[in-house]
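FORM 7B - TANDEM STRUCTURE REPORT

SECTION 1: FIRST PROTEIN
SEQUENCE AND TOKENS:
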Amino acid sequence: MTPFRCSVAVIGITISVLFVGCQTAPTEPDPNPGQKLIDQGRALFFEETFAGNGRTCGSCHPVDNNLTIEPRSIAQLPSDDPLFVAEFVPALADNFENPRLMRDFGLILENLDGFGDLENVFTQRGVPHVFGMSVSVDSRDGPRTGWSGDGAPIDGSLRAFSVGAVIQHFPLSTNRIAGVDFRLPTEDELDALEAFMLAQGRREDLTLPLPLKGLQAARGQELFNDVAGGKCFGCHFNAGANANPAIFGADAGNLNFNTGVEAQPDQPADHSGEPVPPDDGFGVPGNGEFNTPPLVEAADTAPFFHNNSVATVEGAVAFYNGDAFNNSPAGQLVAGATGGPINLDATQVEAVAAFLRVINALENIRAATELLEAIRDNRRLVGRLANEQPIVAIAEIEDAVEVLDAVALHRDAVAALREAHGYASDIPDSSFTSTRSDLARKALDALNDAQDDLIES
């Protein structure tokens, strides 16, 4: 990703004209930013309001909810949380957010086609997590950020995405005048924010097939990679966000597709009585395309798709059986390349979903293990506060339990995960390093038992 350098003039018409005199810098950012830079990015991400309405990046990407929000997590927030500024700041009462759609469906208002007609030109989108971005953003056509790249003005990069987020979500009023309604991030702050986001979650993709132990998940993996079955591997190579290089070319990376999500009948938000214009996807005006999200973290970051229209991972898999997908440009591409549409029976849908649930639980275990090993060894992970490490580890274990237990997968693994959760839950209340270390060690032993039930070591 290439950083940009620009002088800024916010004139409140379209995102594409928010920046004047931008020039691409000749150097690439450090691919291995140090601890100090990532720590600075963490502080900015969760604490910096950029002289705006009180929101931070963490308002929509909280550390204890998989760096995303959804109706259940929103319902737990106090009424004066900055996420709800449209409900108590008069200057943001109109055309800034739709509080009902936010609370009921986790949808955030975006002016991706510009700020010239706030009342009529907008979309309502869910909040994507920011895990695994170091292996899911790049493509031969430039970076793919957000749900389509529209939120990142100029060059689509993570740096630009941070600028776009401040302008869209942080202002004191919908005039969005830089220096009045917010301040723009400095170049150093953009460096730090980018470094922090790239450090979150996985640093590498899986290598499928995995030696899974569960019969249903193993069958789901076969269907996932089967050109006559689920056909998922073409766009989600190794269950990530990148296209299969054997099909799309070695440099394909993360690609945009029109998968027909907007053509689904009976989308929940459409029945709310609130205005929900069709989302035109990438570009101004849009071409109906959205970039491919990674699937490893999918099961515990529901709802699904850019408009939060599907609540369960089983429903998300089943979507690809329906007319909305199979009649879409992407569906037609798949059918032409493989000789027919995707057509999975209900048991096969559940098998693919079981595979996605298991790889999500394995990622939860990996992340919790990394955190607990640091506690055991009395050290702090880069980009984490010391007191945050056990809290996030507990949340990761809870997610693993939830994604497996919801459909009665791997009962022995769930029992071991609950044992690990019990030990980890005692860590925040302990003030003695030796006790914290011992609790972490016991939790790690239980996590290892859970992992052994899911996959061959």
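SECTION 2: SECOND PROTEIN
SEQUENCE AND TOKENS:
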Amino acid sequence: MAKDLKDVIGLPEDLVDAEAFSREQLKLKIRVDKRKFGRLVTIITGFDDSIDIKGLAKRLKKKLGCGGTAYDNTIELQGDHRRKVKEFLLEEGFKEENIEVL
């Protein structure tokens, strides 16, 4: 993928950061779902394969002090963390206009 980006951006291959470039292009959705026994789960969708989703989920869980999981380009966190997740994603380099909180 880096060669394709090199041709598009016009930078040498060693200066192209595919993950940082894709972070600016992704359309992420943050929503809360209610599970059995009334428990709330924050769900973040819209990631692609260029993002290290497991590492991102690990950092999110550590920062928020909650449990969760990452699978199929989706991150699930225990509890309602919509506002904090958006702030964290902005710190990680995602664009604010591409993050939708439902």
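SECTION 3: OBSERVATIONS ON SECOND PROTEIN
The longest strand covers residues 28-34.
The domain at 28-101 is CATH 3.30.780.10 (Translation Initiation Factor Eif1).

SECTION 4: SIGNATURE
Preparer initials: ____
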